[in-house]
Amino acid sequence: MANYTVVVTDHDFDDLSIEQDILDGIADVTAVADGVDVDDEAVREALRDADGVLNLRHDLDAADIEAAADCRIVARYGVGVDNVDIEAATERGIYVTNVPEYCLEEVSTHALTLLLGLLRGLPQYQRSVAAGEWEREAAPPMHRLSTRTVGVVGFGAIGRTVADSLGSLAGDVIASDPFVDSETMAEHGVEKVEFETLLDRADAVTIHSPLTDETRGLFDEGAFERMRDDAVLVNVARGPIVDVDALLAALDAGEIGGAGLDVFPTEPPAADHPLCDHERVLVTPHVAWYSEEANSERRWTAAENVRAALQGETPADVVNDV
After folding, report:
1. Catalytic residue at 286?
2. pLDDT in tens, 80-92
3. Residue 293 designated active-site
4. Which residues belong to CATH 3.40.50.720 in the chain?
5. Hey, what CATH topology would domain 104-283 get?
6. Residue 1: what pLDDT?
């Protein structure tokens, strides 16, 4: 007989069979609602009975954490934990866990796909062919990737995976990350540089930073002014890292060459958002993480972390000091 209750704040799965199988005999798994659009008060009320929480996108603030008086763990179905009040959870002795490596292959592949598509002029060529044209000049002049410099912003697990893939493709790979030393980057064949230097030198920039107070709005008007006029930007990390108004202005002013966006500050963006139909932009709907394998892995990893906490063990992937 189950002794505990695990609350799923929100989800986009067909069912909760994976979570139920892993927690069978330990906890009853209950979802606030089927979907990601959940009522704040309904979530808070459900949390009053929660011994563990599984969370996808819903923002868990300090009041939510306080309501979950018996909770031992909040397990995120993903890498980022910026939608959980970590300080409040830590003060109450609640573990916060993530799934740090479930989509390394998927996100790095997606980042490379967007980067290569931009460098090969795919947005312009697609529009040109759809308009009945068949012209090489529809896209800007191109260069071999082996002659180009790619800048990686954020050198965590995904940034390193991207850099490793670029090693056999790009001419030079440079990276900026204040928390990773030059020796570690050198092990991946990458030169460590300051952020401003990266903007000055890179022909393509790909973002793999977490969302923090320091990275929010990192790519602003000043950043785009520093970038090369033909450089392209890829963001598969977090939407608010890029000021999309400044990006649009930079594209329209010819200050950068193009952009590939899998994330927006507000998702989904408005249907008529000018970046979604811009002639030099590739947009995908926050799917860089996705494969059937990755989706299953994030679910069972998060559920295993909950199982461990409820059984008195220290779960893997803890991101706070409890």
Report:
1. yes
2. 899 999 999 999 9
3. no
4. 4-102+292-310, 104-283
5. Rossmann fold (3.40.50)
6. 56
166 Rama sector, left if φ>0, alpha if ψ -120 to 50, beta otherwise:
alpha
Would residue 148 show up in a list of annotated catalytic residues for this protein? no
- Among 272, 243, 164, 149, residue whose Cα is nearest residue 261: 243
Pick the catalytic residue: 92, 127, 273, 286? 286
What is the CB neighbour count within 10 angstroms for residue 298? 23
Which is catalytic among the residues 188, 238, 280, 298? 238
SS3 154: coil
Mean pLDDT of 31-40: 91
Catalytic option among 267, 279, 293, 313: 267
C-alpha span between 259 and 248 (Å, rounded): 10
Sheet arrangement for strand 95-97:
27-31, 4-8, 52-55, 73-76, 95-97
φ and ψ of 277, to 5 deg: -125, 25
CATH topology of domain 4-102+292-310: Rossmann fold (3.40.50)
